[in-house]
Specification:
Distance between the termini: 54 Å
Oligomer: single chain
Number of strands: 13
Number of helices: 12
Order of helices and strands: HHHHEHEHEHEEHEHEHEHEEHEEE
CATH class of the largest domain: Alpha Beta
Largest sheet: 7 strands, mixed
CATH superfamily of the largest domain: Response regulator
Structural class: alpha/beta
Radius of gyration: 25 Å
Helix content: 40-55%
Shape: elongated
Strand order of the largest sheet: 7-6-8-9-10-12-13
């Protein structure tokens, strides 16, 4: 026989208080005595009462849910980013709703529209999001934090990785290690991170190796594109002495292409990536990379979003914050293991 689910009326009757008092206690609205609070909570526990989330949202105007729109859900970078957001959200009694936007601007717009009314705030990382996108798709009263975005809008604060400085530091490190020429495997066209990392590569080569021709091949931030780029670099008449991939996933694919061709890393060609995903330290040889605290990026975004939610859309301080990153030298670059700090301030979060 099915047991009837307890209602708020049952709790009020058990506690000998009004329904309004039960609602105020369970929704944390205050305005009741300590004795009433204790009586309501004891009654709710005895009856195994579970508040209806939809009804609770109507009363409080809050869903206690955060939305995250990401370009993809595949790969170590995004799983670690989600982990950082989720851990910080759960610590604050919030749930996480995640969607992806890898199929284009319409897909990103659909993901944002789907979350309307379901979330109290959003974290958005998407190459398709610009000022016009936000104006057309974001409700004016919904707080949002952007990740790795060129958008400069005080309504939508952003947290960016210091891609330029990180890429510059890695290229300089490779050149200082004695590698006379450095090739660069770029990320997807139109991707902000990829553009900034290419900018750092160009700046470092121009400053520290001005007579060496730039060598940039296309990539897509995937292992497969790194593998193809590695084969393309091996087919060049003059092979580079070092390769810097714009992310670790491409570096891993490139490493496989080199091994398949019998090319020794770092003896024949040095190799480095960007992000410091977990697998970077476990491949052979271990991968030199630019380390980003990915989980901390997610945590920082969640903390900034809660600031917005509690402050009704306003924050103190700059609306663009930067997360520092550092060179981590491992076996693949042919230099001594070390951490090489980049010259920029720590994140303002």
């Amino acid at each position: 026989m099915t047991t009837k689910k307890a209602t708020i009326k049952d709790v009020a009757r058990e506690a000998k208080v009004s329904i309004a008092s039960v609602s105020r206690v369970l929704n944390g609205l205050g305005g009741v005595t300590a004795e009433t609070q204790a009586a309501v909570r004891k009654a709710a526990a005895r009856l195994h009462y579970v508040p209806d989330s939809a009804a609770r949202s109507l009363i409080t105007g809050r869903t206690h849910t955060i939305g995250a729109v990401l370009p993809d859900l595949y790969g170590e970078f995004f799983s670690e980013l989600i982990r950082g957001i989720d851990l910080a959200a759960r610590a604050r009694g919030l749930h996480l709703l995640v969607s992806s936007s890898h199929d284009g601007v319409e897909d990103a717009a659909a993901a944002v529209r789907t979350m309307r009314g379901r979330v109290d705030g959003m974290i958005i990382l998407s190459q398709f999001v610009d000022g016009a996108f936000l104006e057309h798709n974001m409700p004016t009263d919904l707080p949002a934090v952007l990740l790795d975005s060129p958008v400069d809008n005080p309504r939508y604060p952003s947290i960016n990785i210091d891609n330029v400085a990180g890429a510059q530091a890695m290229v300089k490190h490779l050149l200082d290690a004695g590698h006379a020429s450095v090739a660069f495997i770029n990320g997807p066209a139109g991707n902000y991170d990829a553009q900034e990392r290419e900018k750092g590569y160009r700046a470092a080569m121009g400053e520290h190796a001005p007579t060496v021709p730039l060598n940039i091949v296309a990539g897509e931030f995937t292992e497969e594109s790194g593998y193809r780029a590695g084969r393309e670099l091996l087919a060049q008449a003059h092979r580079p002495r070092a390769v810097f991939a714009a992310n670790d996933m491409m570096a891993v694919g490139c490493l496989y292409a080199f091994k398949e061709a019998g090319i020794r890393v770092p003896e024949d060609i040095a190799l480095a990536g960007f992000d410091d995903i977990l697998i970077a330290r476990y491949v052979t040889p271990s991968l030199s990379t630019v380390s980003v605290s990915i989980a901390d990026l997610g945590r920082s975004a969640l903390l900034l979003l809660t600031e917005l939610m509690e402050g009704k859309g306003h924050i103190d301080g700059p609306h663009t914050r930067t997360l520092r990153c550092d060179v981590v030298a491992r076996e693949s670059c042919g230099a001594q293991h070390t951490n090489v700090a980049t010259k920029h301030p720590p994140a303002l979060v």
